[in-house]
Amino acid sequence: MNILATILVVIAGMGLSVEAGLLGPLGMQVGHLxxxxxxxxxxxxxxxxxxxxxxxxxxISWREVPKWQLSGGLxxxxxxxxxxxxxxxxxxxxxxxxxxxxxxxxxxxxDSLGWFGVRKQPINLLRICGATFLCLALYFTYLGAKL
Length: 147
Description:
The protein has 147 residues and is an all-alpha fold. Helix content is 79%, strand content 0%.
């Protein structure tokens, strides 16, 4: 199951690269905020359509959900706006690697402290090596873009 989950997140990551490639030009044509709104509008419509055919395991009132859990909804638009702004300037590869470095750094902190109810996972030498390689990838991709 870990291999399947890993394959799925790699495929989802590929989708994010495609999204960044689409958002940059769309933002230049219609404006960065409108590009973000259109992406979320299409996504909302798709999820609503899927929800008509896929029964939910639980129906819970919005009032019963801890408000801090809903704050994640604020991060998605920020992420998409940054993709829309950065991709035409940095390119898809540099943007995605920068995103990965930021995600990895914060993920290590979340895992090691067990924030948000995730299982604590200690930072070890192999994880530090992986993060170092990501930072090196960002550095070399930056240098490669300068050539």
